[in-house]
Design goal:
The complex is a heterodimer of chains A (119) and B (114). Chain A is an all-beta fold. Chain A has strands spanning 3-5, 10-14, 19-21, 24-26, 33-39, 46-52, 60-61, 64-69, 74-79, 88-95, 107-109, 113-118. In chain B, strands 2, 4, 5, 6, 9, 10 and 11 form a 7-stranded mixed β-sheet that branches. Chain B has a 4-stranded antiparallel β-sheet with strand order 1-3-8-7, with no helix packed on it. Classes of the chains: A mainly beta (119), B mainly beta (114).
């Protein structure tokens, strides 16, 4: 079974600065998708960015980018020019291409990193 | 276009009571999911429906049942609630179960079982 580990329960960043959130995962599969989701106090889960494992180029979405190191099984999220609205819980998630018994391509989530943005 | 909606937003139950959490999506998605989120943990899949008429167990299905009523609606039932089922429940949907498609989440239902 896949596991996703976020080793930073809490992080803080000064407004306008850059912060990097860490994520590692364990898998024996070669093709998969990785995601970062943001969960603000409203509890809504919002997709921030996605990375296909077969793509070597790191995904970027405006101020959000990832550092995907497939061999190291690492998938970190960099937030540039941090804004107050970036404050939220961030979850890293893994999605398998294969249907395993009872799981049917579920998303496997890490435990989350609570990001605080300081004015 | 409301996306994924869930009712109720909050619920308090006594141990042994039953209830159904409702979920609906208006995006014409084929696949729908139920997750639970406990403090200090990510979301865990309870049940999944690849398409209308099919359901499948996820990581933590015990104590729950589901019904895919039609393409739009996917309900989660607790037949005899237990304190261990105190959690926040999220419904999600995607175009299909294919790996490539993003899952869209509802706002969640906070359930407390006393």
């Amino acid at each position: 079974a896949q596991t996703v580990t976020q080793s930073q329960p809490e992080m803080s960043v000064q407004e306008a600065e850059t912060v990097t959130l860490s994520c590692t995962y364990d898998t024996s599969e070669s093709d998969y998708y990785l995601f970062w989701y943001k969960q603000p106090p409203s509890r809504q889960m919002i997709l921030v960015i996605r990375q296909e494992a077969y793509k070597q180029q790191n995904a970027t979405e405006n101020r959000f980018s990832v550092n995907f190191q497939k061999a190291a099984k690492s998938f970190s999220l960099k937030i540039s020019d941090s804004q107050l609205g970036d404050a939220a819980m961030y979850f890293c998630a893994y999605r398998s291409p294969l249907i395993s018994s009872g799981s049917a391509r579920q998303l496997t989530f890490g435990s989350g990193t609570q990001l605080t943005v300081l004015p | 276009n409301a996306g994924v909606t869930q009712t109720p937003k909050f619920q308090v139950l006594k141990t042994g009571q039953s209830m159904t959490l409702q979920c609906a999506q208006d995006m014409n998605h084929n696949s729908m999911y139920w997750y639970r989120q406990d403090p200090g943990m990510g979301l865990r899949l309870i049940y999944y429906s690849a398409s209308e008429g099919t359901t499948d167990k996820g990581e933590v299905p015990n104590g729950y049942n589901v019904s895919r009523l039609n393409k739009r609606e996917f309900s989660l039932r607790l037949e005899s609630a237990a304190p261990s089922q105190t959690s926040v429940y999220f419904c999600a949907s995607s175009v299909s179960g294919s790996i490539a498609y993003e899952q869209y989440f509802g706002p969640g239902t906070r359930l407390t079982v006393t």
